[in-house]
Design a protein that fits this description.
There is one protein chain. Helix 1 packs antiparallel against helix 2 and helix 2 packs antiparallel against helix 3. This protein is 41% helix and 29% strand.
Length: 150
């Protein structure tokens, strides 16, 4: 039973790592490849560091609930074991969900750009490149997704 719990936790961590989708200026989804994008140019007005919230797919809650339920039920037997399993599953689920969101959160940048036509736009993306006020940049956009690049 304990080997099952360890295997479940390890596989859940591997799945969570794979679920962490990138949102940097360099990350493209499979559907965005070979798609035309519009290009606008401008100058960076300001840059602000932000936190991009992690995912809540439910995998962390399920894995934590199973691990907590199994761990708590093995610590006690009989009726007390059943109560411990339920409480362990609830507690493990909450901890698992919080861990999933914490592991998948990222540092991001809110980049405000004054376009050559005079309008202002702001785009938030992962902090994989450095942007400074006064720099000329490109804004690539298409399919509801925009990104800032040099």
């Amino acid at each position: 039973m304990n080997i099952f719990a360890i295997a479940l936790i390890c596989s859940s961590v591997a799945i969570l790592t794979g679920c962490a989708a990138g949102s940097s200026g360099s990350d493209y989804t499979r559907g965005q490849a070979r798609q035309e994008q519009s290009v606008r140019t401008g100058v960076v007005e300001s840059v602000r560091e932000v936190k991009i919230e992690g995912t809540r797919s439910g995998i962390g809650a399920v894995a934590g609930g199973v691990a907590g339920g199994i761990g708590a039920s093995t610590a006690a037997s009989g009726r007390l074991g059943a109560i411990a399993a339920v409480l362990g599953a609830l507690g493990g689920g909450l901890v698992g969900q919080a861990l999933e969101q914490g592991v998948t959160s990222r540092t991001g940048l809110e980049i405000t750009v004054k376009l050559d036509n005079g309008s202002l736009v702001s785009i938030t993306q992962e902090a994989d490149e450095e942007f400074k006020p006064g720099e000329r940049v490109r804004i690539l956009g298409g399919g509801g997704v925009s990104r800032v690049s040099h």
